[in-house]
Each structure stands twice: as structure tokens, then as C-alpha cells.
Amino acid sequence: MTPDSRPALPRFVKLRFDRARDTWLLLAPERILIPDEIAVEVLKLCDGKATLAAIAATLAARYDAPEPEILSDVTAMLADLEAKGFLRDREAA
Amino acid sequence: MTELSARLRPDPARSHGIPIAVLAEITHRCPLQCPYCSNPVELERASAELSTEEWLRVLGEIADLGVLQLHFSGGEPLARRDLETLVARAAALDLYTNLITSAVTLTEARLDALAHAGLDHVQISVQSVEDALATRIGGLRGALERKRAAAAWVRARDLPLTLNAVMHRQNLHELPEMIEMALDLGAARLEVANVQYYGWALRNRAALMPTPDQIDTASKVVDAARARLHGRLVIDYVEPDYYAARPKPCMGGWGRQVFNISPSGKVLPCHAAESIAGLSFDSVRDHSLAWIWDHSKVMNRYRGTDWMPEPCRSCAHKHDDWGGCRCQAAALLGDGGATDPACAFSPRHAEVFEAALAFSEGSDRYTYRDFSGGTPEPGG
Ligand SMILES: C[S@@+](CC[C@H](N)C(=O)[O-])C[C@H]1O[C@@H](n2cnc3c(N)ncnc32)[C@H](O)[C@@H]1O
Ligand code: SF4
Ligand code: SF4
Question: Which of B1, B96, B159 sits opposite A14 (nearest CB)?
């Protein structure tokens, strides 16, 4: 993941709000993860079009936080998801 | 991010919560005859199967319950022509869908239709890495080639693939090649499933039971492969029955997270539960799933910890393994309510280990799974 990456969930990984449990869930093959609030905000922006840099800028503006730090936090989080196969870089594909 | 299952720590006020997954065994028909098959020896006939309309209603009830994952299994789920229709409905209901298949009857056109319907994941089972042995175990010539082709089609459509390999005395020597085959076929996950002894497998114990040496070697092979393939292939290893010191947390606890629907609509806490004598199961034909999940006698029979005998009752592990597998207790001790004898704390544990050793020296001859009560392998 670099600032130019365009992260997106693969077709088989689903972010959805589960009414029965009143929580957001990330559904993947044989796994169900509970993303925290921040992760949900980030994942909603991962549409395969926005670059990682743009996502960080959006979040920085939304939370009035320093952009470089947001960028490095978001990069780390998304790289971890990518390593697990739950996220892809459209730019690289 | 936490796993949902980790969040499901026992709540003392409730014996159960919202189920996570359902195993829909939509048919018992199957082109293969694996002697290790976990299906009941008394298979349900096609005429008893739920109709398409019944399944469509049941899928709605499944989603309403809050279930997240739906596994289509069997028998061979592809044997039902309406599989695409069922997958499409499940996907429309936001269920995460998985097809558990032997894949020998899969075609590219059918896979396209299933992918189009919204299928999320495919799990293909393999009997062996070698054609002759695969044919001997599954009873169908050319099965392995078809599975390889099917796996390639799955990957070509960017569907995630899990390879499931049921391992036993007669194929455990292939484990290293099995891991290579999973990589070759582009699987993201390999399930190395030591045979669990119920259904047809229980009948075939003498032909399937591994030796302790084989199990030692297998765990080493898996450990080494996991370290080597980190980030490339996830290997799930299902510990062998009978040789373990601690029992499996079977189904994550009876009636806690998952349930199974049989071809005719019986709701079972696990797919082998019918092997426990004296239980009678409710059907989706007679009751709503919500009622069955909360109130059916069978679901509540071994739920939580109140039913437990000693040594489980006062054991520190009771919320981790829920006393092990009820079907195993029933099969080995004739009492579904006993501590799983796979547990080293069970007073009967030593017997089970001795029995395993004896079975591991049994005859290699199989009894094949079929609708006529089983067919012995010729010769031997
Ligand atoms: C009963 S099969 C039905 C689906 C399909 N016919 C197939 O074999 O893939 C469901 C899954 O359980 C596995 N399986 C069957 N018998 C088993 C046993 N005795 N122990 C562990 N896994 C088993 C199969 O390999 C398959 O992945
Ligand atoms: S395990 Fe073998 S015999 Fe049993 S349903 Fe699957 S393919 Fe058929
Ligand atoms: S005694 Fe019961 S609860 Fe304790 S480890 Fe054994 S099976 Fe599990």
C-alpha cells in the first residue's frame, strides 16, 4: 500500500451493518471480523477509486487531525487487511 | 479487529445467542461414495427432500434469525438443479454463501450461473493427490482430474477457494503433496481434516484410523508448512479424534452458534446429531426456525453447561470446549450426555486410545457409502 494505491474490498469480502447484533461486520471466507468505528469509516471510503492519499485527506478533514499521521495509521491498517486477503489495491491490479 | 467468535464469550444469563452459520444439507444424493463420509448411514431419499419453495421460505427464516453465513452442502449440493435459485435468494438476503462440493459434476456454465447468483466462496474436497487412490476412495474414475479443472474455473472467476482434504491412514502419507496441490490450484485455504468418526466414517473406522506415528508426522508437516507458507496459504488442521488429549469444542457448543438442516428439513444441532439415540428432531415443515432455535427440546438438550456431568461440571475448561462432542460420547460410550471420552479427564479416555490403536491395525478394506446400506470393497 502506497499513497497512490486505490484500495477496495474484493467482491467476496463484505462490509455490512448487522441489525440483529447492532454492529458492523466484515464478512470474509470462513471469517467474520468486527471492525472498530474508525475501521468502518476507512473501509467505507475504500471504493477502488479514491487513492489512499485522498482517503487520508478526507479523514483528516473530517476529524480535524494531522494528515501525515492519519495516512500512516490508515496505511498500516489497510496493509494488514491486504496481507490477510481482505483488501486489494486496484492500482496494482 | 476482533473476530466475532471471540466476542461470543458465554453470557451467564443466556444459554444461547444469535446463530452465526447454518449448514444446509440440501440433498444426500452424491456421485461419490467416500467411505469416510460423515453423512448418516441412513441417507434421506430424493422424494423426502424439501422443495424449492420450502427452501426459499426457510432461507428467509434463516436470515431473519440473524444468521450470517450459509454453507450449501450435502450429499452433493450440485445434484439439486435449483441450487442457483437458492444461492440467489441467499445472496439477496445478504447471507454470505459458501458451496461445499466434491466438484465432480461442476461445469463452467454452472459455475458462471452460481457466481452470477452471488456465490461468495467455494470449498472443494479431494480424496487424494493421486488418480488411482482418489478413484479407489471416492469410487468414481477420473474424479481428481475433474476437481483440478473445477478448481481452475473457480480461480479464473476470482472466487476464493478452499481445498478440503479428509485425511486418514490410507492417505496421510500424501500430506506434503496435498499442501503442494493446494498451492498449485490457487487455494487460499487448505483444510487438513483428520476424519471425524461418525456416519459412514464410524463404520469404516478400522480402514481409516491412522497410527500415532502418522499423526505425529502430520502435525510436524503442518507446522513446517504453516511457517513456510505464511501469507500464501492458510492451513486449518482439524485434530484427530481419539488420539487427542482435549476434546474439540464441537460446533462451538451445542445449539450455540450453528445448526444444520437435513435434506428433509430436520433441524440438527450438528450434522451427526441423528446418531445420538433417543433424540427426536423438529422439522422446518412443522415449526418456524425461530421457534426451533429457541425452544426445541433437542436444541436445549445439551445447551450451555447445566446438562454436564462430572468431570466437566467442575472443570475450568467447560466454557472453552463445552464438554466436547455429544455424538462421540454417544458413539463410544452409548451416552450422549457423558464427557467426551476424547478428553483425558474422562474416566473412559484410556479405552478410547486403546481402541484407536486396535483400529489402526485393522483391514484396509472399505465399505462404500450408498443408499443400499453400504457396499463392501471387492477383493481384500
Ligand atoms: C459431507 S461433505 C458434503 C459436500 C460434498 N459432497 C463434499 O464432499 O465436498 C462436507 C464436507 O465434509 C468433509 N467430510 C466428509 N466426511 C468427513 C469426516 N468423516 N470427517 C471430516 N470431514 C469430513 C468433506 O470432505 C466435505 O468437505
Ligand atoms: S464426503 Fe464424499 S460421499 Fe460424502 S457427500 Fe461428500 S463426496 Fe459424497
Ligand atoms: S472435563 Fe469436560 S469441560 Fe473439562 S476439558 Fe474435559 S471435556 Fe472439557
Answer: B96
Nearest residue, CB atoms, B2 vs list A12, A34, A83: A34
Q: Which residues 6+ apart lie within 8 Å of B296 measured at CB?
A: B267, B281, B282, B287
Digits of tens for pLDDT over chain B (380 positions)?
Answer: 677 766 555 555 566 789 999 999 999 999 999 999 999 999 999 999 999 999 999 999 999 999 999 999 999 999 999 999 999 999 999 999 999 999 999 999 999 999 999 999 999 999 999 999 999 999 999 999 999 999 999 999 999 999 999 999 999 999 999 999 999 999 999 999 999 998 999 999 999 999 999 999 999 999 999 999 988 899 999 888 888 888 988 888 999 999 999 999 999 999 889 989 889 999 999 999 999 999 999 999 999 999 999 999 999 999 999 999 999 999 999 999 999 999 999 999 999 999 999 999 999 999 999 999 999 999 75
Residue B47 to residues B27, B43, B44, B200, B264, Cα–Cα distance (Å) = 10, 12, 8, 22, 9
CA B16 – ligand 3 centroid, Å: 19
Please state the three-class secondary structure of chain A as a single string. Answer: CCCCCCEECCCCCEEEEECCCCEEEEEECCEEEECCHHHHHHHHHCECCCCHHHHHHHHHHHHCCCHHHHHHHHHHHHHHHHHCCCCEECCCC
Whether A14 and B160 lie within 8 Å, measured CB to CB? no
Nearest protein CA to atom 7 of ligand 3, as residue: B323
Largest alpha-carbon pair distance within chain B?
Answer: 58
Is any atom of ligand 2 closer than 6 Å to the C-beta of B43? no
ipTM comes to 0.88
Q: Is B349 in the pocket of ligand 2 (CB under 6 A)?
A: no
Mutation target for B interface from A11, A12, A82: give the one with most B CBs within 10 A.
A12
Our answer on whether the CB atom of B304 is closer than 6 Å to any ligand 2 atom is no
Q: Are B6 and A36 in contact (CB under 8 A)?
A: no
Q: What is the pTM of this model?
A: 0.94
